[in-house]
Write a structure and sequence with these properties.
The complex is a heterodimer of chains A (560) and B (251). Chain A is built from 22 helices and no strands. Chain A has 560 residues and is mostly helical. Helix content of chain A is 81%, strand content 0%. In chain A, helix 12 packs across helix 17 and helix 17 runs antiparallel to helix 18. In chain B, helix 3 packs across helix 4. Chain B is globular, with a radius of gyration of 18 Å. Chain B has a domain of 163 residues: Rossmann fold (3-Layer(aba) Sandwich). Chain B has nine helices and ten strands. The relative contact order of chain B is 0.17. In chain B, strand 9 and strand 10 form a beta hairpin. In chain B, the strands form two sheets. In chain B, strands 6-7-8-3-9-10 form a six-stranded mixed β-sheet, sandwiched between helices. The longest helix of chain B is centred in the last third of the chain and has 16 residues. The chains are: A mainly alpha (560), B alpha/beta (251). Chains A and B meet through helix 12 and helix 16 of A and helix 2 and helix 3 of B.
């Protein structure tokens, strides 16, 4: 089936496949380069912290996979049309669960593979691992991913069976608690740490506080240990075989636990799936007040009559967003986590150049988090209108207005939290007013550019038949949106940081690369900030405007 | 009111609608019949502007639906065969959204929404979110939304699907009274009894082309069959593939 689907795609969408393969390669290559340099640095000075780093990384990925799989399985098992059909067929509930699970694990873990594989390949190359390491890498990752995905499925089945009315509230609360716990762990690891930064003792102190992630009962520890053993290279064949046997044992532990959990999940599905589905179907939804809320009313009334259709579309999207707890809870969780991290920045006591560097990195982090949200929630918005296009398509309004309304919704929704987070970060770092102003301008550029990319591509390559936003986001257009967004964030962060680092960079370059030194020279002195602002404006207009214009042109011709 | 002028539509190499020419005057109730895949929904989607004709033009009240869609849509109401709504909006919010989009006066809208709620018996669920609606509830809400701005032309694609007998009666009475008031109704249906009961004229479409256009009486005359129901005539025309000449506007 996979082969025939792939064959069909190659026949009908060769350009898309080539483009996505090319961009994925660029993305993978960039990540590989970053990890390669980082492992070189760590391998030379602090090789002993690498297992701790892997443990923390895989544990956080595990938590994310539990939630993303749980949400995907919830929509696949309880709200999809396919589930309605499957439940009428002579298929056992555990068979239906297994079918939906296979689909959801693909959608929830492709990011894990895309993010994890360049890191592991880079580590293997830096560490001089043998061929066995690369051969074992994929089985170890896949068998690991099955465990959190199954746990997410079991969590979902249990919640719907016992707490149907509160299912998403409980899931969100658990998510908030997990994030709060992660934030506390991060804070306790890095705060009150006065040892010299980036020295071995600093790393050891920091990561020793993350020792909780190295618990032997955690699948992330089994994966890390398996990878570490597989990467061990020795001239003594006996030792080499012993290390490989150890790696194989950890793979066996992962596979055995994955299969055991699958068995348990099958039993749970057999016992609770149909019952939970019935309970959910019989759930009563609260009535809405006949009057519009004051916020909606205010937005509708503010502005000219010509702009009313645009504002009505905005109010409609705002209502849909705030009534969909799955959307805003994820938004709140991730931005909440960033806020916790930024509030705790004060405890690091940076010098001014280091603080400025951290400020730039924080700008990049905010951009990256925002790009995942614009890809996950904004990009599918036009596609989701497809099955309802008989409503908007027949209203007496210009189609451009539909695309503009999505863009405005995204910009208006992302500007306040992002700008506040950057302000918080810069204030905690004690940056001067000029740097704060430039970071805020860069933040506005990011919001406009990322919204333009997501909405423009959403209108350019919509998937009008798919009802699940997560599947729309995981498709070709969503991937392209994520890759382009990541590529856009880099120059924005660079442009915002250069006025404060150009002189240091020129000094570091010395007499080599004279053309680069000359280029950096335009960012020095009093005009540096002005040059930076100009570049940010051009970047925002180009990155936001180009896909938006292409999307609008394509959307005008759209047929449903 | 409605004009198809040599309108054709292809999907790749397949011709779904072939050279359709048809004029429906104001106040007429017109029924388009045909087997599945005959091109009925494609014709309707061209009429409401969701699909563009590959050739020819389609006009509503003199407005080309491709060149001047906003004016055409201002005069159109549409009830699709499968109404997918915004799950997280209540029925009342949906009605207000449609009315505001049509630029209706808010005072008039409030009264008209209440009228539609009464007419389609939406009162019990109109403030619930649409995600909890049954197919019939959704269809009643869509009827109310389609009629809210008092359109000159009402386009119905399989309008009775999912409706209970009481609502079917309400809809039939409403269609009759609105056509008497001058509204044009273009309806595609598989319910032959309804077409026979309500329609001023019927058209039978097979494989993208009109096989017949006229009244049920004219159809009987053409097939030389007296005392037959529309169902018999329809089956004779579509089932046996009787080679009648393709219908023209003068048929």
């Amino acid at each position: 089936m996979v082969a025939s689907t792939l064959g069909h795609m190659l026949q009908t969408a060769r350009l898309r496949i080539t483009l996505v393969a090319l961009l994925s390669l660029v993305f993978w290559g960039s990540l590989f380069g970053i990890f390669y340099e980082a492992f070189h640095f760590l391998e030379d000075l602090h090789a002993d912290v690498i297992p701790m780093l892997f443990n923390a990384f895989f544990l956080s990925l595990m938590v994310m996979l539990v939630f993303s799989s749980g949400i995907l399985l919830y929509s696949g098992l309880f709200t999809s049309r396919e589930a309605r059909l499957l439940l009428t067929l002579p298929a056992t509930p555990d068979a239906i669960f297994a079918h939906v699970f296979r689909e959801s694990i693909w959608f929830s873990s492709w990011g894990f593979v895309l993010l994890g594989s360049p890191m592991l390949v880079a580590y293997g190359l830096v560490h001089g691992a043998s061929l066995a390491y690369y051969l074992l890498m994929l089985p170890l990752m896949v068998s690991f991913a099955i465990i959190p995905a199954t746990l997410g499925g079991m969590l979902c089945l249990t919640l719907v069976r016992f707490l149907p009315r509160l299912r998403l509230h409980v899931l969100s609360m658990a998510g908030v608690l997990a994030v709060a716990l992660g934030g506390w762990l991060g804070w306790s690891a890095f705060s009150q740490n006065d040892a010299d930064r980036l020295t071995t003792s600093w790393f050891e102190q920091a990561f020793s506080r993350l020792a909780v992630t190295e618990q032997r009962f955690l699948p992330s520890w089994w994966l890390t240990s398996g990878l570490m053993e597989a990467s061990r290279s020795s001239s003594d064949p006996q030792q080499q075989w012993a290390a490989l046997a150890e790696a194989g044992a950890f793979l066996a532990v992962l596979v055995a636990n994955g299969l055991f959990l699958q068995l348990l999940a099958g039993l749970l599905a057999r016992a609770w799936y149909r019952r939970g589905y019935g309970l959910l179907a019989g759930e009563y939804t609260a009535r809405r007040a006949p009057q519009a809320s004051w916020v909606d009313h205010a937005i509708e009334r503010l502005g000219s009559k010509q702009g009313l259709p645009l504002r009505l579309l905005l109010v409609k999207d705002l209502r849909l967003f705030r009534r969909d707890i799955a959307q805003w809870s994820q938004f709140a969780i991730f931005f909440g986590l960033l806020a916790i991290y930024f509030v705790n920045l004060r405890s690091f006591h940076y010098d001014s150049s280091y603080a400025s560097l951290i400020g730039s990195l924080n700008l990049g982090v905010v951009g990256l988090i925002l790009s995942t949200f614009t890809t996950r929630f904004v990009y599918p918005m036009i596609s989701l209108e497809g099955r309802r296009f008989w409503i908007l398509g027949l209203l007496p309004l210009r189609r451009d207005q539909i695309v503009w309304s999505k863009f405005l919704f995204s910009v208006a929704g992302s500007l306040p939290p992002c700008c506040l987070l950057i302000l918080l970060s810069d204030r905690m770092l004690g940056l001067p007013g000029k740097a704060i102003l430039l970071h805020e301008i860069a933040c506005v550029t990011l919001c406009i550019g990322l919204s333009g990319i997501a909405v423009g591509l959403g209108a350019l390559i919509p998937d009008l038949r798919e009802a699940s936003p997560s599947k729309i986001a995981a498709g070709f257009g969503g991937t392209l949106s994520l890759v382009l967004s990541s590529l856009f964030i880099m120059p924005v962060v660079l442009a915002a940081g250069l006025p404060f680092h150009a002189e240091a960079a020129i000094t570091a370059l010395g007499s080599s690369w004279p053309w680069l030194a000359a280029l950096l020279g335009i960012f020095t002195g009093g005009s540096g900030v002005a040059v930076s602002v100009g570049i940010l404006c051009v970047l925002g207009l180009f990155a936001g405007g180009t896909p938006l214009m292409l999307g609008i042109r394509s959307f005008r011709r759209l047929e449903a | 009111m409605i004009e198809f002028d040599h309108a054709s539509r292809t999907y790749g190499t397949k011709e779904a609608v072939c050279d359709l020419s048809l004029t429906i005057p104001a106040g007429e109730l017109f029924a388009l019949l045909g087997p599945s895949g005959a091109g009925k929904t494609t014709s309707i989607k061209m009429l409401v502007g969701l699909l563009q004709p590959s050739q020819g033009t389609v006009r509503v009240c003199g407005h080309d639906v491709v060149r001047d869609p906003r004016s055409a849509h201002q005069r159109l109401g549409y009830v699709p065969d499968e109404a997918i709504l915004y799950d997280k909006l209540s029925g009342r919010e949906f009605l207000w959204f449609i009315a505001d989009m049509f630029g209706m006066d808010r005072g008039v809208t409030a009264a008209r929404i209440e009228d539609e709620i009464v007419a389609f018996e939406l009162g019990e669920f109109v403030d619930d979110l649409a995600e909890s609606y049954s197919l019939g509830m959704k269809q009643r809400l869509v009827f109310a939304a389609a009629l809210l701005h008092a359109p000159d032309v009402l386009v119905l694609d399989e309008p009775m699907v999912g409706l209970d007998p009481r609502t079917v009666r309400i809809v039939k009475d409403l269609i009759r009274s609105r056509t008497r008031d001058g509204m044009t109704v273009f309806m595609s249906t598989h319910t032959l009894a309804m077409a026979e009961e309500l329609a001023d004229r019927v058209a039978i479409m097979v494989k993208g082309s009109l096989q017949f256009l006229g009244t049920v009486g004219e159809l009987r005359q053409q097939l030389s069959v007296e005392e037959s129901s529309l169902e018999d005539l329809y089956l004779q025309l579509t089932g046996r593939g009787i080679g009648l000449p393709a219908a023209s506007e003068n048929a």
